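Running this now, will post back.
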Amino acid sequence: MVVLGIETSCDETSVALVRDGRTILSNIVCSQADWHKHFGGIVPEIASRKHVELLFPALDLALKEASVELNSIDGVAVTCGPGLISSLAVGLAVAKAICAALNKPLIPVNHLEGHMLSAFLADNELDFPFLCLIVSGGHSELVYAHDLGKYEVLGRTRDDAAGEAFDKVARVLGLGFPGGPAIDKAATNGSPSAIAFPRADMGGSLDFSFAGLKTAVARFVEGYRDILADKSASQYTVPDIAASFQEAVVDMLIQQTERAIQMTKANALAVVGGVAANRRLRQRMNELTSGYGIKLVIPPIILCTDNAAMTACAGYYRLERGLTANLDVDAIAVWDLEDVTVSHLPPKVT
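Update: finished.
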């Protein structure tokens, strides 16, 4: 089966075609970063308007690259949530129009489930059950995936997501937007042990917290702002701060993931989401899983950021089980993975 995927949950406009849930025929991702960088973050109004402009050209290009006719697809998978409601609404409207015109099944997909199943596109041998760390701009969650739609959330952030912290610290350091790649690049020339930034102690929980770390970096930079401006006088550099902050984030992610491995006895770990593109995190996760002798799957960078291939992949497995929806399905800004375990459809908007 060939599934068309549409992803517009935030600021990437993406269309993809995936065969049998594992083979990517095309995956077009249109970044809006240049429009949002001037504001230091995502502007929802701009994001939704750009989706309207970019979605149909992306659809045409995806079909062309895949050498697939639109009327030959087996279904349309679309991200219905969580995300920016105005952005989600654009993708869902186009998906509904295609399904109505061609009499194709509509497959609602949870954005986080899409991220998790992006690991299937990176490793054809990976299957349920597996442990998954989702780290992105809006989410930081440890999930044990028992089966499709059966997700046990072991821990999640209590405040900022890891990617959100990267963006905010990059802004404090004047490194631009998006913050993740900027911090990663700057950290290569810095010392991860230059500054002892705090790591949140979550007690016996597998939750995360990055707000305190973000505040500590902001206060440190404020205290040394004048010295940092005079590079000849400062014992610290922006790369040192970036590397020390990055190491603190990675330490917390590694610590909780290791505890989850010990608790679940998992034999496979997937690390997905935009922050999974971070080189230091990839290195440390390789070291961690090698020590436990378990499989590690981290998708290539194009599959870490928001993309429609992951949506189409999840859509295939849902279509295979007949989990489709009527055209009255709603987009929804908040749709927790716990709710996916109860129902394959987004909760109704009231």
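The chain has twelve helices and ten strands. More later if anyone needs it.
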